[in-house]
Amino acid sequence: MTQVTVGHQANGHSNKLEKKAATTDKVASPGDEQLVLNTIRCLAADLCQQYKGGHPGTVMGAAAIGIALWRYEMRYNPANPEWFNRDRFILSAGHACLFQYIFLHLSGYEAWSLDQVKKYHSPATKGSMAAGHPEIEYPGIEVTTGPLGQGISNAVGMAIASKQLAATYNKDDLKPIDNKIWCFTGDGCLQEGVGQESISLAGHLGLDNLILVYDNNSVTVDGRIDNCFTEDTSAKLVAQGWHVIDVYDGSNDLAAILEGFDKAKQLKAKPVFLNIRTVIGYSSRKANTGPAHGQALGDEEVAYVKTQLGFRPEEKFVIPQRVYEYFSECRTKGGEAEADWNVLFKQYQEKYPGDYKELSQRIKGEWASEGWDALLPSKADLPQAAQPTRKSSGIVVQALVPKFNSFVAGSADLLESTFVSFKDQVEFQKPDSGLGDYTGRQIRFGIREFAMVGLGNGIAAYQKGMFIPIMSTFFMFWIYAAPAARMAALQGLRFIGIATHDSIGIGEDGPTHQPIALASFYRALPNINLIRPADAEECMGMWQLALDDKSKDTPSIFALSRQPVPLLDGSDRSKVQLGAYVVHGRDVEEPELTIIATGAEVARAIETAKLLQTIKRVRVVSMPSQRHFDQQSPEYRESVLKQTSSLVVAIEAWASYGWARYAHASLSMHTFGHSAPQQQLYEYFGFEPDNMATKIDSWAASWKSKGRLPGLGEFEELLLGYVRH
Amino acid sequence: MTQVTVGHQANGHSNKLEKKAATTDKVASPGDEQLVLNTIRCLAADLCQQYKGGHPGTVMGAAAIGIALWRYEMRYNPANPEWFNRDRFILSAGHACLFQYIFLHLSGYEAWSLDQVKKYHSPATKGSMAAGHPEIEYPGIEVTTGPLGQGISNAVGMAIASKQLAATYNKDDLKPIDNKIWCFTGDGCLQEGVGQESISLAGHLGLDNLILVYDNNSVTVDGRIDNCFTEDTSAKLVAQGWHVIDVYDGSNDLAAILEGFDKAKQLKAKPVFLNIRTVIGYSSRKANTGPAHGQALGDEEVAYVKTQLGFRPEEKFVIPQRVYEYFSECRTKGGEAEADWNVLFKQYQEKYPGDYKELSQRIKGEWASEGWDALLPSKADLPQAAQPTRKSSGIVVQALVPKFNSFVAGSADLLESTFVSFKDQVEFQKPDSGLGDYTGRQIRFGIREFAMVGLGNGIAAYQKGMFIPIMSTFFMFWIYAAPAARMAALQGLRFIGIATHDSIGIGEDGPTHQPIALASFYRALPNINLIRPADAEECMGMWQLALDDKSKDTPSIFALSRQPVPLLDGSDRSKVQLGAYVVHGRDVEEPELTIIATGAEVARAIETAKLLQTIKRVRVVSMPSQRHFDQQSPEYRESVLKQTSSLVVAIEAWASYGWARYAHASLSMHTFGHSAPQQQLYEYFGFEPDNMATKIDSWAASWKSKGRLPGLGEFEELLLGYVRH
């Protein structure tokens, strides 16, 4: 157990700066530091007051932590925010973005001028980068945060990325990767389950390049956290395999913070948690209250704060020149650090040209040279017998992942069921665990689906395009991970999500494990590919689509069957990117009926088509991706669905929601599932071809007799009789 | 810190039964107990082998824990599984359902005959109650579990329910509520974030009626958990405010388990965590491996196990009479316990008739007498000025919650923003906290959205209908809670979900906080009411719908605006239950155009209607609930939308997904949002009435000139020009 105390328990709000300053040679002039602290506090108060909104309290309470980070501890180059070997800073407490914006300005990021910072809470739609939560698009922001807890998972992912790269490319004499990951968290992120999951896994993995800085102000929107959170966080983190450093007066005791950070950088074998007590809204009379968390202080209080801190109430946004001078070293130090690294990397290039080539390619975001898709078996070389699409997807994992270092794969405890293991895989594990080492590209995420995808986002964001994380669990449990998958779509981070056992086809596990509505969320979500392939051939096309450059800013989720599906005569990998295509009955010129189906239901749809009595001119369309189909021209869409002249019916063992855009009727799930073998569930819920043919026949006959196609409001669900008893 | 060790670290698999039996007078005959253990192990092996699937390992490893629970520790009456004051047992490790089924059988639940238990993995669709995960519909099952971690949250909710009832109704001399909540968890639930959140809150609340039994076999699907989980769980739980009892040989040392449970029942002021080490698949050669977790053992191995344990390999499903005799006391004890309680409750009735009346009404699931909705203000008495629907919803919270003890309210740290606080509220807190007491009906869930709803499900399932939990956070964070909301819908548990700040209307917080696609999930999900009211009047109808008896098996989520909306002339609370109705232009007999809108967009739609140039005969429909509209007759639906004769367009600041069923076109969000004041976002994304009128005019004119209505495949999204830059 490592638990270190730095500084002393605070007695009130005594200012310890001068006293402590003498104990470290790092601190410049105590007078300067006090001015800097006061400047930042007044600036935060002004910035929130101008639009009467925002989060001033954290900036005011944690200003000394910010000084320690940006002025002293972190390695970065403000002149080149993208420098590869920079430390990464993740603000998990995203609502405190002003904290980050102010230090980005003071440390010299050109884009973060004072004018820009003053745009806090003014419209992003009119050019403000100072959004209400930090956004990845802007310089110095590593990842978009806001939904609490996820920043911690992103940071753990970044720490994995850095460790994995270091283990892969560093040499005894030359180490191009040796940065640290700093994550700033408030109380909220530590309450959220995803934060807990990530902390647990980081401890297990022993990620000593990760430093989690806890701004322990113990106040949230609703007031003191002791109304809902009274655990001993430091002791808990020790139990979870972390080094813990306690700092007791984080609003003032800069020397103690620096001492803590210095220790944190030296500690080995475990990640480090700094529990730094601060006073939210420090120097305001609203200090230590909920309103200091998420409201502007009010004009009167802002004036009070300024008066207390030696500033003039009538002057706004004041940053004395001495404060800029205090931070001027950031640019110098940063420039030197990058220059040194450039020299090192040049030496690396000369001595290790092969590794250099691969690494520098990956830094540019290129994961493979052209022609990678030739590594996938042709249709003729695919297994010709029926097999689950989860297994067919595994063919691609086997073909590509061992060859390309950009892939990391992993599972939330369903490695074999989801077919993401690969030949000669090494597990990403602590070298002394006996289970693997940090070169490993197979990550055991544990039963932590949300953290898995949050970590994946961190890995993907580490250096965009450098990694393509592959993550897997049953489709149903992509609902646990949905908040993180959404953040990937929002940020344009590519991952591959393997979502197996994707329907009632999971069988005996029953309704708790059978997704009905989840696809509707992913289909409605912007910028994510939800792909449900019909067979092994479409699995090839699905991977091609996801790995294509066109998807480089888009995550993909593959919904895959547990149960075997036949290799279809008409399936065609090249058509998957079109979203839908005619898979059966292409030669039917003027179809009377088009059946759309997806995934495991496509084979059933083809069987159904063959059994129809009323209507003989039938086509079956496989629609692996609604989103890609929507992106096609109206002409292509009409050529596939023939919806202006033929009846169209959709077959899918999920909810009907969303199908009215493509079909006049659907055969869908209208309720939750059941526990039974999959074959019996398909039968029970009405998806047997003979039953479906009967339903469609009767429906089609009635419309035939009406002599017109159904219109708006006439969408029918043909299996409505099948409901849970 | 309380951490107690019971028994000794196991040396191999030595059988400690005989040795320990002498130390407690509770244990009957050691010989019997060994026979019982062996019988259960062989039975589990047989039951999985018959259909070659299932989870035998936990039953075999934890059989002694089951004996301790059902034979000795838990208070319940097999003859009346619904007896109110029974202990509640929650199997959080739902995949180990066979464990529960076997003990339900042995302890004498009539419905759980051996024939019924033998239906494990046979179709629920053909009468099996022995589903792949336990389902609430069946006797002795308190809650449906399976998605890992949620059972723990359900158990914490039940412990809250029991504590709250006890504090409300128990008297010094008569205590009708004094049961315990037992939760059985495996490794997985403890890794899941929702488990962690729930554990943290239970520790904070000091729920000493909760006993969490950790079947610590350290093996999951993917093998040994030390490949991903190496924390010191006992130390962690101590840090989280739990009593911890360690038992080291839980597969054999029944006496130690009993000693632990006895201690657990006596310990006060904190919940109790029993960390019981077991050997998964005990007595098989596959013990301690992943395959023992989730696969049948195979014929050969089943034979081996039986031979080892003194059973005949060729005989299946053998339960010796002595085993039944061993458990016969369960029925006797249970019957006596209930009889005693009936006497007590009779005394309670005589002495405390008022409390008795309310309590017994609530036990029957009746939360209020008729006429409660008269407590809601009439439209004339509602605030006539514009106000946010979140605030209007709060009017109902104020009107009803203080009056009816069935309501518990709470928030994930957004109490005031979501308007779920109420007059004279008492917080549900430890009595010695100084913050409230256990009679409290305001629960501070902390920043733990998923646990909040999991707890709510436990509260709702405690005694169905006895509580109606009200839970709140921003709509966006109902994505964190979605896995639990889904479980409520699956189980038919009523809760009220307050989901405020429901769109880009949240403003400056930006895209991370602006839901786009989430509504599609909730609209597609069976058995949940997603209601988005247009104004204060519809807020009244929304609450009426959710609290009506028709919704007693259905959870509701209210999507509410942060920003003010006017009270609409045409709004009508009585129409909310119809899902949609004409809110403007009712007198327009033959509309050329119908505009559907929801929530805050309805007022904008009415403004838009007034600005149209091309088309003058326009109606506006408010559609607070798609689901309820779908349930109306075709005639009603046609009368509202006039879709066979008029153009229909939908306006909603969410994704267009799903609207093609109701409209020919939509004005929707096509991308994630932005950080800006809400008014500017509505403008930026094209939702200003003048812009919408222009778009609709031009679209309508083009169809007017075509002389027909759009057909399938011609659905248009009229704001597609507005995309994120």
From TrEMBL, chains A, B:
Pfam families registered for this protein in UniProt:
Transket_pyr, Transketolase_C_1, Transketolase_N
| TM stretches of this protein | none
The residues forming a coiled coil are none
Q: Where is the composition biased (Polar residues)?
A: 1-14
**GO-annotated cellular components:** cytosol; nucleus
A single BP term in Gene Ontology = pentose-phosphate shunt
**Cofactor(s) the protein needs:** Mg(2+); thiamine diphosphate; Co(2+)
Note on cofactor: Binds 1 Mg(2+) ion per subunit. Can also utilize other divalent metal cations, such as Ca(2+), Mn(2+) and Co(2+). Binds 1 thiamine pyrophosphate per subunit. During the reaction, the substrate forms a covalent intermediate with the cofactor.
The protein's matches in PROSITE patterns, at most eight in alphabetical order, are given as:
TRANSKETOLASE_1, TRANSKETOLASE_2
Query: What protein name is recorded for this chain?
Result: transketolase
Binding-site positions, substrate: H55, H293, R390, S417, H501, D509, H513, R562
What the entry lists under PANTHER family is as follows: TRANSKETOLASE, TRANSKETOLASE-LIKE PYRIMIDINE-BINDING DOMAIN-CONTAINING PROTEIN-RELATED
Q: Does the keyword Magnesium apply?
A: yes
